[in-house]
Amino acid sequence: MHEWMQAMTDLQLIRRIECHAAASRIAYVELKSSRWISYADLLGQVRGRFVELCTSVGATDVVMLRCDDRVDFASWFLAILACGARVLPVAPALTMTELRNMATRAGATAIVADVSTRIAMEECLPLSWDVHRWNGSPEVFDEEMNGPIAGDWGDLLLSSSGTTGEPKIVHRTAASLDAVARNMVEAIGFGRRDHVLSCVPLSHSYGLEHGLLAPLWAGSTVHLCDGLDLPQVTRALAGPITVWPAVPSMIEMLAAVGDESLTMPSLRVVYSAGGPLPRAVYDRFQSRFGVRVGQLYGMTEIGSVTFGSPSSETFEPASVGRPMRGVSVRVLNVDDAGQSVAPGEEGEIAVRAPSMFRGYVGAGAALVDGHFRTGDLGHLTAAGNVVITGRVRLLIDTGGLKVNPLEVEAVLGQHPQVADCVVVPVRQSETVQRLKAIIVPRDVATPPDVIELRRFTKERLASYKVPRLFEFARSLPRNDAGKIKRQLLEAP
Fold this sequence. Notes:
alpha/beta; five-stranded mixed sheet; 13 helices
């Protein structure tokens, strides 16, 4: 076997693809064009694109991948890893200014993208490949070819969401990708008979892991769609879809679909991640479709680490489930860097996992006894489930009293006239902040009465947690993963 082909089998994910390729499994179905490829086709594409890349990039290179074709994304992603380089997937929606800034921060040396992007980026990234150039036909390999691989696979770089601050670029290894894929297959039960609906962008950790890594590991068929295209999603769910990784906004939209004939006959598990799933949305979805929504918890730095399966005896809708195999979760005192809180008490969630990241580009990772401080607030239940209650940095100080805006948002979200909401701080003086709630009404023409909203909140929360100001909006700014961009709503 050629040296480069031997190196390509060093990542366990490739071994899994080769296994499924022998059985001629379908790999991906692109809903919009009804296009599909088998695992054998996918493996051929990876090898062909590896041939294009391997003589030019290696362990010291960072290759940006901007691919709006979700079928091609997989082969480019794996081929870049096979070359030993670091692959940095980026969202197709990013502007050229954002791409240049990210290239600088990541130390990028090359890019795989469409022609217009390559031309726009050639000043800072002269080494590039056309994402559409190769059509997937198997290449004829040179018998004497030896690739520049030293036995090590490349790494993954991902930009954090930046919803609560400046985005960082996370550095994860190929071993991390294997570990998280293996854990998710075990915890969620991906299998060869499953049809997975992939709506979350592949440039995000959640979308990458659940729309690529876990399905490839298990030999599942993935149905790809561009974000939440409601007609595509409803058609797919009415067909063979058995597993649906979603975000809260997707669950809410499906629960509100007026077509009573819509059913999900094959769906065996649906779960939400990327943000808290309000209990009211959970209840509406279950009432509408008779399906309970599981919750998954993870972060860009480590990947998916807990899962709450509706079929589990310990399932609690308010929690994100129990840690996966090999994952350790501690709850730390917010004001003490290494002190754990008493069982059941709230603190900062810290995680250690086999999929632990190597650090941030340009900076290391500060760990506490090998655990990464996530910045999330939460507690452990008696059953061992993790409950996320907020963000440490989101806590709003109102005259010495700390308010968790997610708690206030959860209460406001129960009001029948509120479709969406966010709570942000408003500075009243140099030392005093007050709360402002931005409300998206269910009916924009008849927004809820402010006095009624204040009364509703005061009945359920301490008075210092009740927003002083209420504002109405048609929508809230969100990123591709459905998270609210709070920094755009906070006054400087």
